[in-house]
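Lab notebook, page 48
Experiment: co-folding of the full assembly
Goal: obtain a model of how the components sit together before planning crosslinking
Operator: M.T.
Materials (sequences as entered):
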Amino acid sequence: MAAEPNAAPARPSDSTNHGMRVVVAWLVLSVIATPLVAIFVGPLFPPGNASAEGQGQVFDNQVMTAFVTPILCLLAVFFAYGLITFHARRNEAILDGPPLRNDSQIQLLWVVITTTMVLFLAGFGTYELLKDGSGGGQGPSPIALPAHHQDAFEVQVIGQQWQFTYRYPSLGGVESNQLILPAHTDVALHVTSLDVIHSFWAVELGVKADANPGVDNVAYVETKNPTTFHVRCAELCGLWHGYMYNNGRVLDPGPWHSWATQAAKLYVAIKPYMDKQEADGGAPYAHSYLPAPDRRAG
Amino acid sequence: MTVARRLLGFNLLTGAILGVVGWYVGWFGAHAIHGLSIEYFADTDYNELSVYLAYIGGVVGFLAGLGFLNYPLARLRGYPPSLREKEGAGVGRYFGLCTDHKVVGIQYLWGIGLFFFIGGLNAMLIRTELLRPSHQVFPAGTYLTIVGLHGTMMMGIMSSGILGPFANYLIPIMIGARRMAFPRIEALTFWLLMAAGAILTTSVFFGGFPTGWTGYAPLQTEANAGMDNYILFFALVGISMTLLGLNMIATVLTMRAPGLTWTRLPIFVWGVLSTAVLMVLAAPVLVATLAMGALDRTAQTSFFNAAAGGSSYLYQNLFWVFGHPEVYILALPGFAIVLELLPVFARKPLWGYRLSVAGLLGVSLLSWFVWQHHLFVSGINGDLRPFYMLSTELISIPTGFTFLCGMMTLWRGNIRFTVPMLFCLAWFFNFLIGGLSGVFLSDVPSDVTSHGSFFSMAHFHYTIMGGLIFTFFAAIYYWVPKMTGWELNERLGKIHFWTMFIFFNSTFFPLFIAGFEGQPRRVVTYAHHLQFLNDWVSVSAFCLGISMLIFLFNLVWSLAFAKKPAEANPWSSRSIEFQLPSPVPVHNFDRIPVFSSDPYGYGEGPVPNWVPAGQPAGRE
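Observation: model returned without errors.
Model output:
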């Protein structure tokens, strides 16, 4: 059998400078749309102003969105213009377009622009990350440290199926099933797990750190004004994963200290019962948890 | 009489029967080893060994019944090599071991379609549950199983979604060969995948599994017996993918017709090649990881048990070493199909051939260096996060090549809005949204906001459903008329496209917002104020499901009832498969073609890019 060449007559060429039109339309649209998006959409982004890290993430989300707007505009203008201008007429015989195979200048321009954008993004992200850790879990030996990390108030977050327990070493190991934090304080959260992988997500504070068994995963957060926030488990951890959520609160120093006193009292009252379990031959109740914060993970 | 003889041979029926026999042999055998009772399902919760041996026995029986042992046994007994499996005719070929690559391609299309449909039904069930903020329809464990079945089915089966049906069918034709390099392995990859699909589906009889498609240990280690089905499923898929990739690489490297140099290959072949490399290198990691998981569950090893010296990070690390190339195994064939189809419907040569090849290979290469972006908040290697941030963002450069080449191919073209073209154009929109949302996830600070939330879920549905499934349908509308010889109804096709495009976006775009509002993935409950958003998504998802039924109706109607014969070259394509008669003869070519250029010479005159050997080459 012979090959059918399937060639069609060429479409008549036109001399309009379509490229210039697209570029101009794109520039105009981008110049209008980008500030609008940054100013009006930007502040809506999560997680909000409840913590310094949260504010940092809002800023990052804002920058990202402003950054992608011109890209969206380019594609929108290109396809709107291209598909309207260059489509085949209905019931018209098939016509071939011009055999353009390459343009090394356009290729070079594209490579240079995309590479520049990518390197800027990576640099910006790295700077923002190293500034204060951005509220993410960074393992047992963090390198992205906020300014006052040595004086941070330490809380151990212990995940298990299916709840988080919060242990306050500075209050003599008091444990609570609700995370109560003092306002305007640097907090170091030491996240670990007793069983499977969980992920501690304090939504409005902008904190997310996986809880791995045997690992001390540290996340820093600097609380702001008193507020209420949600805690959810963000890593599938079995049957009742969907119910592993709770509220937490950020309190002014006064209310926080009265809460701490109350919690310590309660803890002293129930401690003998937990110890009694072991005395009766049951499983020992641990008052401290592995890993010790200096243990290397992984 | 003849019917009985046909049913008795090596075919799917025999395979199914021997599969069941093998299953029970393994089941009872393992109980004998354990010295346990053989009470039916009573002791499945602690006798994992039985589940493994039962399914391994089942797979061996199934393959034996299909006739996969005949050839090795014949060779052992000294018979000469042959390809007798190819000689069948009629519909029976499709229900057994057949080494004709065109038959395997069509087998793949229907087999994958079946499991895609099951996976899609699971998505409908998930959205039914999420109509209400508290859990209503399914018990929590059942819900997790449905989530896991949806994700695992889609990721596992659809990994071969393009390479299975379309590469198997088209690669030998496109490179001017008469068969794949390893035809029997080609058939094996298909039947392994079908066995795997059956294993995953039957996990519901063992209580399902709670881990989702990632199967994170130690949750994996403590899960009930349905987890073994997950492990077996993904291991078989991994083996099937490795063999599929190997076969593709060997075929493209060694069997190209004369004149088909590397710069004359259709871009689809390059896409298949770059995907196949990922398959061959990534899938074995998965199989090994799952073997460790299986040992943890059966032999009480402790690869992933932190209390006994293992590490949950080990599983996460190994899984994503496979897992990130895996998402490009899903996405890259989509790139290739878009670039392959655009020249046909824009009537222009593919713009920037070398750049688009560099794009495909670049993505393929870079996908190996990004996996820990899945672990940005896990606490593993906190100091490497800037590196993974950079490498992840670098992938957008070669992806951008694909966009540039595609867009410049459209530029000044004569664009025809056929159904396959509409799906390709939708790819640009979907993958743009998917890619730009990926920017938020690649940046560590903004990833802390959206990690593990519905934002990332929306992101990967935009890239995988928007990137792979849309091009999967483009490929179906483009090539199925060639593969079957029947035309697909164009009006129904357009209705399918528009409903799918609209409801796909209406389903997944609001999920970005749900994620930003704090809804984690895979939860059965969510905040009350998110109910409107979730209900909107659920209703859109049901409409998306209806859109799929329109497609199914079109397929059944066009192929079984309307039966309008398709032209040999319905799209006026210059690609070689459309120059062959419909249906394509068993041996593809009477004379092996000799190529003189790539198949994209639109607007470059009536000279064919290939001739059957022996005739004078036409190009000046």
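Interpretation: The CA atoms of residues 464 and 581 of chain B lie 34 Å apart.
Next step: discuss with group before ordering constructs.
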